[in-house]
Amino acid sequence: MHLRIIASLLSILLLSSAGLPEKGPLPEQKPATTETAKPAEKTEKKAKEDPLPSKDEKPAQTSPETKPSPDTPSIETPESKPEPVLTIAPEDGKEYAACLTALKELGATFREEKRIDDGKGCGIDKPLTLQTVLPGITLKPEGKMRCETALELARWTKDAVLPAVRAALENEGPLTTINQASSYICRLRNNAKTGKISEHARGNAIDIASFTFKSGKSIEIQPRDEDSTLAGAFQRAVTATGCLYFETVLDPGSDEAHEDHLHFDVIERKGGYRYCR
């Protein structure tokens, strides 16, 4: 009897030390899949119910409009620049009168003409037609130009050409004719289709083609840099002295367009600069 009681007490002690509950069965564990699935369902549901960003969140950026590259031409057409308006410069009345007086004193003959306006900047405000450069020296053919151009031509002939004739061509007799190739004419420089307007189109220029003497001999303008004759010396002398009277002097050595004449003009340049070649 005592032995059974002792055995029962030992069994109770052993069960208590094993940590088993005194009453009822052990609690059942819930499957892990049930607990992890619920948060995912809540997240998905929230995303459907609340698609808008919160106040602290920045809205998603949409793709910016495509900007044209630097090489892409602009759609807008730029306004075309207006072409410069070429006008005929008015001449000072007092200066013109003084020029006419000086031209008459040199013995030149001429007739005054009406104002020329051929459009596109071509024309002369106070033109004249020069007939004789000096007494006994005809301009052939007669030429239209500004008074200043005619005056410088007469001065050059008197002070430079006639002394060169006496020194180099005295046997040919006096100079009787200066043959011109171009005076006033409405055109661009060197008869080009594009470019700047010629000084001939403003009455500022004259081209000399040859000189004729009483003997009938003519000295034609041509390349003479290596010409060792008196004709060559004469041409080089009158060409060099031309720049004492005209602001621009072009001779056969300047370019192909001037191989057969001397170009003289009275265009004003900054600082009194002269172009002679």
From TrEMBL:
InterPro entries: Extensin-like_C (IPR009683). Pfam families: Extensin-like_C. Residues 38-59 have a biased composition (Basic and acidic residues). Residues 18-89 are annotated as: Disordered. Residues 1-20 form the signal peptide. It comes from the Bacteria. Residues 98-277 form the Extensin-like C-terminal domain. This is Extensin-like C-terminal domain-containing protein. Keywords: Signal.
